[in-house]
Amino acid sequence: MLRDTEKYCDIDIVLINALNADKQRLSQFNLQVTDRFLEVDLSTYPKGLYIAVVHLMDGSTQSVKVIK
After folding, report:
1. Cα–Cα distance list, 25 to 9, 33, 37 (Å)
2. pTM, whole model, 2 decimals?
3. Which helix (H) or strand (E) holds 5?
4. Nearest to 18 by CA among 36, 45, 58, 37
């Protein structure tokens, strides 16, 4: 589960890619400007390191590491 709404609550997120440690895309989520919360269920994935690549409306990206 990726939950980091406080960090990005004032930033317009347009796309989130969920990657495994090998940088293979597991999921992609397109968001609307009005979306302020995203929950991703990683229960079917094995324990390990995952990366959420957050694409912002201004064209920049940020990465968030998630350890399951």
Report:
1. 24, 23, 21
2. 0.67
3. helix 5-8
4. 45
Q: Which of 2, 7, 13, 6 is nearest to 39 (CA)?
A: 2
Whole-angstrom Cα distance, residue 57 to residue 6?
Answer: 17
Structure tokens at 66: 């998630």
Helix then strand count (H, E) for the chain reads: 1, 4
What architecture (CATH level 2) is domain 5-67? Answer: Sandwich (2.60)
pLDDT band for 63, please (50, 70, 90 cuts): very high
Amino acid 3: pLDDT: 47
